[in-house]
Amino acid sequence: MSDEPLFESFSGPALDSRLSWFCEPARWQLDATDPCLRVHTDAGTDFWQRTHYGFEADNGHFLHLSAASDFVLTTKVSFRPVHQYDQAGLMVRLSPACWLKTSVEFEPEGFNRLGAVVTNNQYSDWSTQPLAKDVNTVWFRVRAEGCDFLVESSLDGLHWEQVRMARLLEREAASSVACGLYACSPKSAGYEAAFSFLKFQPGRSA
Q1: Domain limits of the chain?
Q2: pTM assigned to the model
Q3: 86, 191 in Cβ contact below 8 A?
Q4: Could you tell me which CATH class the domain 6-144+170-202 is placed in?
Q5: Tens of pLDDT, residues 31-63
């Protein structure tokens, strides 16, 4: 399997044929006037496994392609959250028990949470940092280097800061991973996320 670059600007009449949905949302569209992918999340959607809260959720919306080797994955997402934990960003997934996601999660009171969830052996952990309420657009980037994944964010698409460095334990034995955009609303519907592009670059250079 040979990975090929992809730049999906969401400006065409259809998604790139390499992209497919896991738990496709009831409402999504390609907006040609302001080119983007608009995702309206279904209620009760999430990705989480066991830790602290005890529940298991594996029904978030995930638009992905398959990657065999190292890669750099980048997107820009603008969001209009409504309910606590509304979220959208990037995801890398091997199975329900092994994946990572990075996003901004909405908090009705105080700061929002910029962070990442890493799941191994069907247990999730969540690392966060505060993000001001007036920030409604964030760039996310994930660098896959072997079994290790470097998660970064930016507020302007130029200056990047590390959010997380983590290992996905199932990667070593897997021939490929799924990687792409995700969005979900653990509580109620009403959240809208607009993805301006999805860039997939094979190798380790952005």
Answers
A1: 6-144+170-202
A2: 0.96
A3: yes
A4: mainly beta
A5: 989 999 999 999 999 999 988 887 889 999 999
